[in-house]
Design the sequence.
């Protein structure tokens, strides 16, 4: 358990999947942070399009009169999280992990191929882990979110974000590219990190590393 003031951390998980991120969120809570793991883009509880999803989360922050110390976007959730931060000045820090997607992947064929190929890493969640989440979303909503992934470009959104931005690229990422993540960081003068021996779905399998990074970001001025 950490000492010091409690921080408000919100996490936007990836496309139509949530349970893979539960252990990391629980680890942050056990460490002393107040954590909200949002329903993922694609689930019925929020609009499936990433921009509308982001606006809905920003509206929720306004209604709750909350200030978010750290907003984390995982994979496709990073696009939605960037929309939230651009919409709402109450987001102090923004962390994008494995941000999607670069120009090379911006076609339905390339994106679908990369998504279906999955990951090849010891920490990567098995497909069966995602099946209940995908069923909850349903194919129609997954397709609508999938389509908005091609439309919402982080390089267009991030210049409108006032929060301190950190971009983390997993070195075993098979969907997002190092070059795109580095270019995004340069564009918005963000801190750029390479996560060693990590898959696209990080922080799966690395709760300790996730806690350490979150603590470091929250301690930064």
Sequence:
């Amino acid at each position: 358990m950490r000492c010091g003031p409690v921080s408000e951390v919100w996490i936007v998980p990836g496309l139509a999947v949530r349970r893979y991120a539960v252990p990391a969120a629980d680890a942050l809570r056990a460490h002393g942070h107040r954590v909200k793991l949002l329903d993922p883009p694609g689930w019925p509880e929020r609009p499936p399009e990433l921009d509308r999803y982001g606006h809905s989360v920003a509206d929720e922050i306004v209604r709750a009169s909350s200030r978010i110390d750290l907003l984390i976007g995982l994979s496709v959730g990073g696009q939605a999280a960037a929309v939230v931060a651009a919409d709402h000045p109450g987001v102090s820090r923004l962390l994008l992990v494995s941000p999607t997607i670069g120009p090379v992947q911006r076609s339905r064929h390339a994106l679908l191929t990369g998504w279906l190929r999955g990951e090849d890493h010891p920490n990567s969640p098995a497909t069966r882990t995602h099946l209940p989440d995908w069923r909850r979303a349903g194919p129609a909503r997954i397709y609508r979110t999938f389509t908005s992934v091609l439309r919402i470009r982080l390089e267009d959104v991030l210049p409108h974000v006032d929060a301190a931005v950190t971009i983390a690229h997993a070195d075993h990422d098979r969907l997002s590219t190092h070059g795109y993540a580095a270019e995004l960081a340069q564009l918005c003068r963000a801190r750029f990190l390479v996560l060693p021996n990590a898959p696209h779905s990080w922080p799966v399998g690395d709760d300790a590393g996730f806690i350490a990074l979150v603590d470091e970001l929250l301690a930064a001025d």
The longest helix spans residues 50-64. The first strand starts at residue 8 and ends at 12. The chain has nine helices and six strands.
